[in-house]
Amino acid sequence: MGIAEVADRVTNNHNMQIEVSLCAPFRTPKSGCSICADICPIGAIRISGNGVEIAGKCIDCGVCVSGCPNSVFRMKERNDEKIIEEIKARGKGQEAFRISCQRGDARADLSVPCLGRLTEAMFVEAIKTGISRIEILQPECRKCPNSKASSHIEGMISRALAIYEMVDAEKDKLIVKKIPLQPLLKEPGKSVSRRELLSAFRTKAVEVAAACLSEVGTEGEGKETFREVINKRPENFKRRLLIQALEGFPSLKEVHMPSADAMLAEIEVSSECTACGVCVTLCPTGALTQEWEEEKFCLSFKPSVCTNCRVCVEVCMPEAIWIKDSARLNYLMEDREIKVFEAKRKTCSVCRIDFVGAVKGLRPFGDSVAGADICPLCIDRHNKQMAIIQKRGFMRETGSPHDERRLK
Amino acid sequence: MSERGAFIPEEVLEASFKKPGPKQYTLWVDLEHCIGCQSCTMGCKAENNTPVGVDYNRVIEIEEGEFKNPKEKPEVRVYFVPMPCMHCGKPACMAACPVGAITKREEDGIVLIDKDKCIGCRYCAWACPYGHPQFNAEAKVMEKCTLCVQRVTKGLRPACVETCTAKVRFFGEVNDLTKLIRERRAQRAFVGPTTTEPSVMYTK
After folding, report:
1. Nearest residue of B to residue A315 by CA position?
2. Which of A62, A227, A265, A405 is the most buried (most CB within 10 A)?
3. How many CB atoms lie within 10 A of CB A385?
4. DSSP letter string over A82-139?
5. Quick check: B17 contacting A, CB < 8 Å?
6. In percent, how much of chain B has pLDDT > 70?
């Protein structure tokens, strides 16, 4: 860690932790996910080949914590568990539970820096306290610098409403009230002496320096390979909190919601699947698992773990996997594994690697191997070689594309 | 992967292609004099310590012409075509890799697989028009010709070029080799489909 990095950590309040192994663009560059970068109000989040990082002045609004489907972002101070505790404490014996943001109503029962900080679990914990309704006091998000989070807020409210339907809450349990946009509130400062001020600086500086130095020692000790990192699969804490919140409701109504905004997905797999295992390896939460049994290959899916991050769809080369239009939210509370693909297991006589099924359209080669199992990859490689050998004039006498480019 | 075969959509191939770097190092193989002795294959195997079943360089035999009438002069010709990685300008393997383990180096245009990132899915072998990347069953990763990058960075020539018995393999920057070919008044060509802009050049 260089001096610049240490200085950066001293000046920036690093309340945010990033669990990059859960990040979809980190696991595969084919992921189009950019939710965190899109909703960060000050554009402090950068997505690159190394995943995601906070590359600017973070204001700890926590919108990224709620926005990321896989719980990549974690806050140290006032984390999700803390906010849920606040909800449980203040919700008891109340008629209406009012939630607002820093630019909204200061007298709200729960005040968060931005309404985008709210998660599904918080909405469920709120009605568990027994209050009759929840009021979201939402100012005009468009005029606020945090306006980038407003689409996320809309999605979150639609998910909350769908969950409320599932737990059979009364209609109009959740109301959104429009209020004017307030200027940023400043807490009345209490006067401190010069000595108190300087000693506060010193304590804070020592704390931050100690935190930086403790990290310096661990760097360079056997860097993990990419494969090891993606196999770690740390906990999706937001899913745990949501399931814990929903455990209080004995009977659930059947609810489906459009998959675009849903917090989980239902997937289907076609016969194009080649059992390559890429979706299983790259699924950030481990919702997809595979099993090579003696006679067959099975691909299984656990919707309660799925976060609708779409990595599986984006990486599958044969495009054998896709997401249904709607998602059944009841899967959240069902610990079920669904078999989504099954095929007969065969062993290739050429490369000795297992494969599944027969692949239409690829012609097997030669009578000498008639009746033997040959995997699609070996067939394809042989066909490519034959195409080169048998084509009349196997060489293309064209100008080098390199020259054309350099001349431009 | 059935009727279509493995395919990389045009837009994905284009998107994965960045501006070419300053230099492209490559091989030139003179097929006129290649005798198919496979020394290059063996030299490569010794240098890169590849396991059984994995050959970075493969020499294939191509017969051209027909042997019609034994009384007349036969018009048959056999070529031995060594096929290493073509280190393409638009590598399909790089476009296909789901984890971004394949990169094309800026400084010399060599296409490399990062074995720490590779998850052994074999998509690169599907996508390569030459079927070049091969699976290392022990390490469970994909391997391919590296143009002996470990030798090239030290100023040496790749092992296949050094061990060639008939001295038909040449290594250098693509523009320099092209100049050499033109000085010999030979016609430069590339093998197989050229949609991925292969770098390795051949002369008959």
Report:
1. B98
2. A62
3. 17
4. HHHHHHHHHHTT-SEEEEEETTS-TT-SEEESSGGG--HHHHHHHHHTT-SEEEEEE-
5. no
6. 90
d(CA A397, CA A403): 14
Q: Are A403 and B135 within 8 A, CB to CB?
A: no
Tally C-beta pairs within 8 A across A and B.
Answer: 128
Q: Does B98 touch chain A (CB under 8 A)?
A: yes
Instruction: State pLDDT tens for residues A381-406.
Output: 888 888 887 765 566 655 444 444 44
**Higher pLDDT residue, A193 or B100?**
B100
B122–A contact, CB cutoff 8 A: yes
Min CA distance, B137 vs chain A (Å)? 8
- Could you report the per-residue pLDDT of B135-156, keeping only the tens digit for each? 998 999 999 999 999 999 999 9
Terminal CA-CA length for chain B: 36
Q: Where are the domains of chain B?
A: 10-203
Q: Which SS3 state, helix, strand or coil, does residue B135 take?
A: strand
A277 touches chain B (CB under 8 A): yes
Query: Token pair for residue A377?
Result: 């990859």
**Are A268 and A183 contacting, i.e. CB atoms less than 8 angstroms apart?**
no
In angstroms, the CA B93 to CA B196 distance is 10
Taking CA–CA distances from A311, the nearest residue in chain B reads: B98
Residue of A nearest to B196 (CA): A401
Domains of chain A: 3-75 (3.30.70.20), 80-178 (no CATH), 256-347 (3.30.70.3270), 360-408 (no CATH)
Go through A208-239 and write b for each residue having 16 or more CB atoms within 10 A of its CB, e for each that does not. beeebeeeeeeeeeeeeebbebbeeeeebbbb
* The CATH number of domain B10-203 is 3.40.50.2000: no
Q: Measure the CA–CA gap between A155 and A52, rounded to whole angstroms.
A: 22
Instruction: List pLDDT tens digits, range A347-391.
Output: 888 888 899 875 555 665 554 455 678 888 888 888 888 888 776
Q: pLDDT by residue (tens digit) across A279-326?
A: 999 999 999 999 999 989 999 999 999 999 999 999 999 899 999 999
B194/A282 Cβ within 8 A: no
Q: Give the number of other CB atoms < 10 A from CB of residue A372.
A: 13
